[in-house]
Amino acid sequence: MHSSSPSGSTSQYGEAVHVPLIKSPSLRVPKLVQVPPDIHPLPDSVTAYFVYPYTLEEHIITLENKRRSTLATNDAQRLAVLQRHEHKKEQQRLELERIKRLQQEEQERIRKEQLRKVAPGFDPSVGALVPKKVGAAASTDASTSSLMLPPPPPPAAPQRDVMADLVDQLAALDAAHS
């Protein structure tokens, strides 16, 4: 659709070429960058620029050694604090165990005392109360013979023997307390 116009423009927007446009103030075209004439161009070989004098190495090594020694000191201090804390916890645990053991022993002692009030000479750690014959209690004393059961039968009946021993033992305890 090319049309020829009296102004000689051949594009379809030829007529709009002479119409003034309003530009937005927010739009701007940047200026072209001009390279200064005194810039130093790079040579063909850049190997001369890669000469390293190694002047920073000693400084870096010194700083790194200081940093490592500081870290080691801090780690040692933390470890010492943790060990003290663990030692303290262990001491507290041992103290708690000791206190619990003392409390249990005291409860056991109180229980034994209560059992001895009911049955003198009874010791729950020994188990069942087994009477023993005591030579002094076996004598024919009037006070002890009244408390004793008849003498035990021959070894064929061991239950009566145990009972007789019990009576003898109780009589001996009664005589010792009187």
UniProtKB/TrEMBL annotation:
Residues 82-116 form a coiled coil. Keywords: Coiled coil. Residues 136-146 have a biased composition (Low complexity). The keyword Coiled coil applies. It comes from the Eukaryota. Residues 133-160 are annotated as: Disordered. This is Uncharacterized protein. The lineage of its organism: Eukaryota, Fungi, Dikarya, Basidiomycota, Agaricomycotina.
